Amino acid sequence: MDDDAGLFRATFHDSPIGIAILDEVGHYRDVNRAFAHILGLEPSEVVSRNFAEFTHPDDLPRDIELLSQLARKEFPYYVTQKRYLTSTGEVAWVRITVTRIEDAVRTPSQYFIAQIEDVTEVRKAREALEQRAMYDALTGLANRALLMDRIAAGLSSHADRATTVALIFLDVDDFKMVNDSLGHEAGDHLLTILAQRIQGAVRRGDTVARIGGDEFVILLEGVRGPGDAEALASVITRAVQVPVTISDHEVVPTVSAGLAVGEPDSTAEDLLRDADTAMYSAKQSGHARLRIYDTKLREIAVSKLEIEEDLRKALREGELRVAYQPVVNLLSREAMGYEALVRWSHPLRGELLPEEFIAIAEQANLVVAIGSLVTHEACDFLARHRSFAGKVFINASPKQLGTASLAHTLEVAVSESDVAPERVCVEVGEAGMIRTSRAADSDLDSIRELGHPIILDDFGSGSGALATILDKPVSGIKLSDRFTRRLGDGATGDKMSRGIALLANELGLLAGIKGLETEAQLAIAIHHGWTIGQGFLFGHPVHEAELGLA
Ligand code: C2E
Ligand code: MG
């Protein structure tokens, strides 16, 4: 018997699993080394102290309740996970099984035996997994799931207070350009730096999340209204706009920002959508802007959405058609070509001009389908009128260049209609030419190699026009009608028109001028050296049947 008791004591003390014997009020009667070790102590330092001294305060009420239920014999034992605070103040997670035993001889007659297994490492591994599910791997910021939880929690905790939550939706300007020209690693590097800058600019308690490639969202807690939130937003955007060197290139990052402030009845989804809408509107009005959400923006967004839906239907049901405007030799006034301009016969709203839908189509990625339709239609136009030996001009959106491969679309259209590629000119707006990626550049090269003249449309309307001529395979320009309107001013307007015409001719480029409406403008344009042109003076864009072509 004594041997058995000795064996038991040895097992108790040397067991790799912690064991503790507690009395009815939770004092340790005896503990083994493994348990003391979890607490960072020797057994003698633990014995006779109460379990409450070592238990994490958040777990204590529940532990007391469980022990008293066990004492009342509501169950024979229980298993749970709990936290101890170790001698160094760290948290140790354990899995604990507590059993009630009765001693018929001694008083008190009731004891508890606890078996305690250290699961801190398991817990840590699980937390790391949870971290991965809730946080963005690249930047360590919250991900969308965590953000949505926090917004919802923020909205409900502020529901009956004078303050509310606000969201700032940030989208990095021209991020695609960094990614395309410097590579994905450089892009990732930039995102990481921006994440740190944003995190460094917010207050404690605010949540910074990355919810998409280059989209960051900041949840601001406890704001009194748009003024507060706007001030915080400008602190953040200023922190972002510090030059940074990425792959040996100095980049000055900017962000477009949308701000939405929580209303009493907002949901997390509403708030995120509103901040996104505001960001989109900020981006439309240029780079590095901040826009505050108001209901008018929502109305615009909704009508855009309607147009987008209608446009998909229009493409399916053939509501889009092409009008042609003559492009003439200024001296002979004869049409040397026709510009193909898309029109939408909307069943309810009548004929819509491109300005009402092209921008939306670009954003909804429908512009590639529209462009393809116009390209095929314009090539067929040439095929249908074999007696006309001139050119067609089609307008290409930058979205059609690159992965969408306008070169391929042209190749197919030209071969199906059996027309010469040099008769199909591609107009790209100046703005669209500047912001091209490597893929778009190589598409432009292919288009040129196929034999299509590339025309820089709206020349002089933006910045970088001259550099574009220098860098891209351009065969001609069409002068923006902003200059045409200034013809005859005897000053800057005239000088610029003459200078640009001279430059275009000198470079052997097709020199086209747009928006000619009067005989006086025509005379001056010829005098300045413009050779081809278009405008209401020669003809409006009309249906092909009205052109009088054979
Ligand atoms: P754009 O390339 O500058 O086309 C010329 C625009 O000027 C046309 O407007 C035309 O109607 C207008 N216009 C022509 N002559 C005169 C004139 O004497 N005075 C004035 N004030 N305006 C004149 P439209 O048809 O509304 O097209 C607007 C823009 O939409 C085009 O500008 C072009 O950038 C774009 N667009 C048209 N069709 C397409 C298309 O198929 N695809 C793409 N991506 N864009 C297109
Ligand atoms: Mg054009």
Q: What does this 3D model show about the protein?
A:
With 550 residues, the chain is of the alpha/beta class. The protein has three domains: 2-125, Beta-Lactamase, CATH 3.30.450.20; 135-293, Reverse transcriptase/Diguanylate cyclase domain (Alpha-Beta Plaits, 2-Layer Sandwich), CATH 3.30.70; 306-546, EAL domain (TIM Barrel). It has 21 helices and 21 strands. Strand 20, helix 21 and strand 21 form a beta-alpha-beta unit. Helix 14 packs parallel to helix 15 (406-417). The N and C termini lie far apart (120 Å). The model has no long low-confidence stretch (mean pLDDT 91). Bound molecules: ligand C2E and magnesium ion. Ligand C2E binds at residues 325, 341-342, 353-355, 358, 367, 370-371, 374, 395-397, 427, 457-458, 515-517, 534-536, 541. The site of magnesium ion has 4 residues, from loops.
